[in-house]
């Protein structure tokens, strides 16, 4: 991600900084697929729970250059996402108050961008984004056992919806080998609705019948209006000679807007457990990312890349870190290569994320969890220039 938005060697500027489209003189399309590994060991006094699986992240981008001044772009990609999965009989699912099992959140942006390049080296761009969000939170409702022992209630909270977002960007080229770019993505508030399914795994038919008679089981209405953060991206690129180039990025994300993840449901059991809703308090803080990359232009066909990044977590501390998002500061190391031939370009990338150890304190239950996480990312991209 070093130099994101102004590299000019693909069409990803559409997603990061629309003004950076002017650095790419080609009209073309590209398709990409990244596979992200979610790997974690959650250790508590009751034992260790493990997660290890892959999540696919596809993307499609295209750019049309009307002339050497006006540029237009289109993209579909995933700017935010969340995925964790615990087994139904894991310690996290059975002994923590929240009883987290599956957590899934996917945001898909459909982006229309335009940019204009002035004669003095300045470029300005803007993006209009149609954003779709879908989420699912499944849980063992352990707190319900205090109200009805033996109920073994299972919750499946699903929502989806649409909203709009906007992005502005600028880029200045000092010369053909040096440029800097700055972009701003506005915050967006998602408006979602869905269904909340409550079922019982109790082996006592009288308990199940009683829950049904009280209207505690079945399908209920759900809603959630989370606020996704505004962000700034500052990037630079400098080509030293015919072989070497250096790029960097500083990113600032205003995650403090993600103070509470709201959850609304018509399920009457919420009141029975002494709650008003399913809100989860995170109290996230703003976060920084610093990335530095190096490129080696081996010949007309091959380009080799490497980079490192420090990515700050928005989680404040163990009291507010959630088992659903056991996030921590992380260090990225990455390698990549591009191969060009004729109108075709193939990009390959690999990144390993070293994540700092994290922990959660689950009150009032006695379940403090220590997390040892890591991630591997594999990416393949194809580009065709007309």
Q: Would you kindly provide a written description of the structure presented here, covering whatever features stand out?
A:
The chain has 386 residues and is mainly beta. It contains five helices and 22 strands. The protein has helices at 13-16, 91-95, 144-147, 205-213, 269-272; strands spanning 28-44, 47-65, 70-85, 100-117, 122-140, 153-175, 178-185, 188-189, 191-200, 218-224, 227-228, 231-239, 244-253, 260-261, 264-265, 280-281, 287-297, 302-311, 330-341, 344-355, 358-362, 367-385. The strands form three sheets. A 14-stranded antiparallel barrel has the order 1-2-3-4-5-6-7-12-13-17-18-19-20-22. A two-stranded antiparallel sheet has the order 8-11. The protein has a two-stranded antiparallel ribbon with strand order 14-16. A hairpin with a 4-residue loop joins strand 17 (287-297) and strand 18 (302-311). The longest helix has 9 residues, at 205-213. The mean pLDDT is 92.
Strand arrangement, major sheet: 1-2-3-4-5-6-7-12-13-17-18-19-20-22
Q: What portion of residues is helical?
A: under 10%
State the assembly state of the protein chains. Answer: single chain
The 3D shape can be described as elongated
Estimate the mean pLDDT confidence. 92
What is the chain-wise order of helices and strands?
HEEEHEEHEEEEHEEEEEEHEEEEEEE
Q: What low-confidence regions span 5 or more consecutive residues with pLDDT below 50?
A: none
Beta-strand share of residues = over 45%
Biggest pleated sheet: 14 strands, antiparallel, barrel
What's the number of extended β-strand segments? 22
Radius of gyration: 24 Å
Distance between the termini: 26 Å
The number of helical elements comes to 5
Structural class: mainly beta
């Amino acid at each position: 991600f070093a130099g994101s938005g102004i590299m000019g060697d693909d069409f990803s500027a559409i997603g990061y900084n629309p003004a950076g489209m002017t650095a790419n003189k080609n009209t073309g399309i590209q398709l990409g697929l990244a596979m992200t590994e979610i790997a974690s060991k959650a250790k508590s006094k009751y034992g260790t729970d493990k997660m290890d699986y892959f999540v696919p992240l596809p993307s499609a981008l295209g750019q049309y250059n009307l002339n050497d001044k006006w540029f237009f772009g289109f993209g579909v990609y995933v700017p935010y996402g969340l995925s964790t999965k615990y087994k139904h009989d894991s310690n996290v699912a059975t002994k923590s108050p929240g009883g987290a099992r599956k957590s899934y959140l996917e945001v898909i942006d459909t982006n229309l961008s335009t940019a204009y390049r002035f004669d003095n080296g300045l470029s300005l761009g803007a993006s209009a984004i149609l954003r779709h969000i879908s989420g699912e939170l499944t849980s063992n409702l352990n707190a319900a056992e205090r109200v009805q022992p033996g109920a073994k209630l299972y919750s499946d909270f699903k929502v989806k919806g649409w909203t709009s977002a906007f992005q502005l960007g600028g880029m200045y080229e000092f010369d053909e080998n040096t440029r800097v770019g700055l972009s701003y993505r506005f915050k967006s508030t998602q408006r979602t609705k869905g269904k909340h399914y409550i079922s019982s795994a109790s082996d006592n038919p009288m308990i199940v019948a009683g829950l049904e008679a009280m209207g505690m089981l079945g399908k209920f209405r759900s809603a959630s209006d989370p606020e996704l953060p505004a962000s700034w991206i500052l990037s630079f690129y400098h080509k030293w000679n015919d072989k070497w180039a250096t790029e960097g990025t500083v990113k600032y994300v205003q995650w403090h807007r993600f103070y509470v993840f709201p959850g609304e449901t018509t399920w009457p059991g919420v009141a029975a457990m002494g709650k008003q809703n399913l809100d989860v308090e995170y109290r996230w803080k703003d976060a920084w990312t610093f990335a530095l990359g190096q490129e080696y232009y081996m010949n007309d066909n091959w380009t080799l890349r490497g980079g490192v990044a420090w990515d700050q977590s928005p989680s404040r501390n163990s009291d507010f870190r959630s088992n659903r998002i056991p996030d921590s500061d992380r260090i990225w190391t990455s390698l990549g290569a591009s191969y060009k031939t004729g109108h075709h370009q193939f990009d390959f990338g690999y990144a390993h994320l070293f994540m700092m150890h994290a922990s959660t304190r689950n009150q009032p239950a006695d379940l403090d969890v220590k997390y040892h996480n890591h991630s591997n990312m594999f990416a393949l991209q194809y580009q065709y220039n007309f």
